[in-house]
Amino acid sequence: MHTQFDKFNKIEFIYNEKNEVILQSMKNEMELKTFPDDVLKKLDFPTIIEKLENLCRGSLGVENIQQQTFSYDSEWIEKAVQQVVEMKDIILNEPNFPESGFDVLPFLNKISIQGAALAEFEFVKVAKFLSTFHDILSFFSSKKREGVYPALESLIKEIYWDKALMKEIDRVIDKELEIVKESASPELGIIRRKMLEVEREQLSIFAKIVRKYRTLGYLSDQDEGVRNGRKVLAVKAEFKRSVPGIYHDDSASGTIAFIEPQETVLLNNELTSYQREERREIEKILRLLTEYISPYLKHFKKYLEILAVFDATRAKSFLAIEMNASAPLISKDGNYQLFHFRHPLLYLNYKKQKRKVVENNLILEANEKILLISGPNAGGKSIVLKSAGLIQLMFQFGMMIPANEGSKLVVYEKLFVDIGDAQSVENDLSTYSSHLRNMKHFTENSNTKTLVLLDELGHGTDPILGGAMAESVMDELLSIGVYAVVTTHYANLKAWGARTEGVQNGAMSFDQQHLEPIYQLNIGSPGSSFTFEIAAKSGLSPAIIKSAKAKIGEQNKEMELSLTEIQHEKQYVKGIRKALQLREKQVEILQKTYEQLKKDIEKEKKLLMKSFKDKALEEFNASNRELEKLMRDFKEDKQDKAKFLETRKFIDQKRVEFEKEPTPSVESKDIIEPISGKMEVGSLVKLNEGAQVGEIIEIRKNKAVVSFGNLSSLVNMDKLQLAAIKTATKHQVVLNTAQKMSEKAAFDTNLDLRGKMKDEALTALDNFLDNSMMYGHHRVRVIHGRGTGAIRQAVHFSLKTQPSVLHFEFESPEFGGDGVTVVDLK
Question: Which residues does residue 503 pair with via DSSP β-bridges, in sequence order?
Fold first, then answer.
């Protein structure tokens, strides 16, 4: 049998020269490759490991966490994350999952040694571990949990279990006292009863002797003690020759002599003899019990493997609860979407301080894999970079991540990181030399499944030369097809990102009014470093700042001003993006709700039909039985005219009732019919281009809050129309379908935005793309003209954020060139 941990974190027992068992995790062949060697330390993953170890319930989980590596096996990752999701649900909702018995058993190797025997305390640990495993089997075999936790259940599917094993250990071992039970063998029972008789006699005689010598004043305050396993008198040193018996020892001060009285020597000898007999019998019983469990050793190893995975998975689930984490999807199309993510450790730290951490979104598309982040110092660029790296490591470690539901991550084969100062005195490397060494490795070893994280690319040398080298490195990485998140202050890299296909610019927001960073990432345009503004806030002399401004070229001045203006423009676009993301989420929720409702309706329809048929059959059978009885009575007395008339009347009555009984129809369907009138609170409405009916629950000026089932949305009134639900026949449905086909044929796949304002153009573009998707068109044209380029720029930015857009490019020169954009839809 193969389970998920066979591929990655399978645990095996191996033995060293001292026959000590070592718990070792198998190396995964599909292991994420990282560079340089200190990647985990740079991204703070050791702290995650430490937290997981502290959350384990035993050493099995700790060993599993320590030995586990990072996988790029999508199947394993998906299953491991799903196991964490299911365990999280168990922690929050199930009180009966085992809490102990998850420890490594280093003595198990003795079981395979001929003639060896486990000690009593070792059998107690075996019994505890088996009890824990049995409890887990029972937990998942419960009827109420059948199929509820499939990923976790797969760990114990078809596992071998023998009920007799635990019974035999329980028969022999007293787990509370950690001794062999007297009932383990008849011989042991006889020996212990004889021992008890001797002990009682010994205690009786010893008590008399103590009273005797206490009266004589020979004993110290403590009267008695135990030496060499025998009861002795604590005799004052000056009287030790007056007490006959065997001398054993003196006290540390020499004032007390410990003497075994002569009267109990024989009894003690007899008791010692019985104790030796008892030990021999116990060792015999333990050898037999060890021999009995030896065939189960291979199963014990498998049980421990499974318990290790359960313990490690539970630790991951506890941490997921602390981080308010969710399970990301695995990207199948190469798009990387991280929604409302938080740096895991920063989030936990802020949570303790009851502070709120800033959440960000990070999107890398299959055709735009590289993101350049610029902005002010201490603005959060490095935090975004490290968050992406740490979250990726957690994901490929089989963990949930601190980001919102719906996040979608690419599974990478390689993770390359260049963060911080990596200079080395030992290797004679300067900061810049160490960066160049990293760049050499990145460019020579990357592939399309590589994530590269570069912090402050090009720094450590002359800005002009370093900027040029950085741009060339990025050209090479772009040609390889890596995914990359890069932070920089270099103007030439910002310009490179703006003009290069496949690259996105991003900026960390800055509050110009209060001259402080906002730590919010905005994708779409580069950011200013706000050098002079920050210098002014820090109190630097205005004269120095003025002199610095005079020293930079006009071109750089204009670029800084342009970047500042872009920041203002980005605030506006940011709002649009959030609205788009919200709408996308709402559509997704509506679609899921619709699919679920459809399933529920079909299920309900089948139940109603079955119920109706059962009821009709039952009534028919009852009527049939009653008619048969009347017919028998009628045959028995054909001359009874009154009874004949009564039977005839009953038959006629039942026929009328059956004809009037309504028959459920599955031929008709509900359709939505627009109606005229005034919209007000309580009105049923639908979207102009939609089919789902909702109810207006609030009106705000020219907008309405509409409840669509469990979802409420704020919608412009001009996008709504009053609606009524009407039952349509099959004929009407055919007519409606024909009408839709006619509308699709008449739909113009060209959108002309020339002469429109920016807001008006973006709204028209949104509606146009929605209608295009609805009517099934996969290629459309947007005519924006050339002009100043403002509408074209706004259209292209909007298209980048549209989830329905697969690709877009300028039209060929003979059909409009850069005045027209051709859009391919999914």
Answer: 370
